[in-house]
Amino acid sequence: MTGLPLPGDLAARARDVLSGRVTPEPPRDSATVVVLREGPGGLEVYLLRRKSTMAFAAGAHVFPGGGVDPRDTDQAVAWAGPSTEEWGRLLGADERVARGLVCAAVRETFEECGVLLAGPDERSVVADTTGDDWEADRLALIDRGLAFADFLSRRGLVLRSDLLKPWAHWITPEIEPRRFDTRFFVAVLPEGQRARDVSGEADHATWRRPAEALDQARAGEIFLMPPTYRTLTELAEHDGVDGVDGVLAAPREIVTIMPRVVEVGGELRLVVA
């Protein structure tokens, strides 16, 4: 149980939290989507490098995602695929929270990389989201001038919840000043669409094979937070998206993971169970 050593400022806050001098911040519901595709060498994932100026996970390579907008729980969201009740069972949440998480997953993926898991009906998906009108809507969603439900309604689209597969559940450690209660999903890049480097929170975007990203992290070439590292490790066990051994066919038991702090030889370390 070696864990990750905590830097000075975070170690000081950890001692304050552990001693009861500081009350942990409540985590905010959020969603992260691992966008997948079949590349020339096999399975690839889409990664964004967060700007060094970001308050949370600065410089880290991450998957698209973000917090739930209160309007994501709107009953008016056009929906196809598993019901909100079924998603609640899959995610271990009530229907309202489940609806918000799934909507946030689809909305944030569109906002951060231009990929939209929605279509005119339950059997189709939008083929291209690169026009100026799409870009205007994407920016309006980002600045919250446009609600996701209104965006779908205006374009005559339904959210394709069946294109998402639940993958994991991570909660930011209690010692962090910014905390998130995050459900991880995987989704395949829809045919005709392309992921684009459009996130205002990132300064670089890339497709990588999971094993390649892990090698780069171990070599110190990129920085991966524990949930990203663990997810890539799990995905590296699969050669592709489909098939018996593909990611989509992989059985998943969603277990909540919240890293905790332990003291080793007088040094505080973050341990992932």
TrEMBL record:
Report if keyword Disulfide bond is assigned: no
> Which cofactors are named for this entry?
Mn(2+); Mg(2+)
What highest taxon heads this organism's lineage?
Bacteria
**Which intervals hold domain Nudix hydrolase?**
26-230
Gene3D superfamilies per UniProt: Nucleoside Triphosphate Pyrophosphohydrolase (3.90.79.10)
Cited CDD domains: NUDIX_AcylCoAdiphos_Nudt19
Keywords in alphabetical order, please: Hydrolase, Magnesium, Manganese, Metal-binding
- What's an example of a GO molecular-function annotation for this chain? metal ion binding
What name does this protein carry? NUDIX hydrolase
Please name the source species. Nonomuraea montanisoli
